Amino acid sequence: AVMNPERGTTVPLFVNGGGMRGGDVHYSIEGLPFLGEARTAPRYRFFSIRDEFPGLWPVAKGGVSVPGELYDVPLDVIRDRFIPAEPAELELSVIELDDGSSAVAVVLREVAHEAGTGLTDISEAGGWRAYRGIAEQASQGS
């Protein structure tokens, strides 16, 4: 964590859905330092929730590496802007990136995963944007 007197302590935030550039909740972190494209360690399954937003789910085996973006975000921005913008099915956690480092991210809540309602496993789709691209093409009627 880096102490910035103007912004407070910052942490790396991994986003893999609407928080990414062009996404519907990107406004919550807009203007903060973009650290680049990133991927999770191959320890997660990736779900689409009602085809509205994605959710990471940590697994012991059979996981994939999920692509996303990394930002340097003050903890108070995560508290005041990022978390309130996230859907109720997701909660804040700490995940592992493919280089072994850690980042803050939202993951599927256990209760939402257990309920299974509206969940589609999209782990093999190659990320949220790729999945949405597939979904958008499908909805246009081929």
Tell me about this structure.
The structure is a single chain. This protein has 142 residues and is an alpha+beta fold. The chain has three helices and nine strands; from the N terminus they run ββββββαββαβα. Strands 1-2-6-3 form a four-stranded antiparallel sheet. Strands 5-4-9 form a three-stranded antiparallel sheet, with no helix packed on it. Strands 7-8 form a two-stranded antiparallel ribbon. The longest helix is centred in the C-terminal third of the chain and has 12 residues, at 128-139. The radius of gyration is 15 Å and the shape is globular.
> Sheet bearing the most strands, described?
4 strands, antiparallel
Gap from first CA to last CA:
48 Å
Residue share in helices?
10-25%
Gyration radius, in Å:
15 Å
- Basic shape: globular
Q: How many E strands? A: 9
Contiguous low-pLDDT stretches (5 residues minimum) are none
* Global mean pLDDT: 93
Oligomer status:
single chain
Given helix and strand content, the structural type is alpha+beta
Record the strand order, biggest sheet: 1-2-6-3
Total count of helical runs of at least 4 residues: 3
Strand content: 35-45%
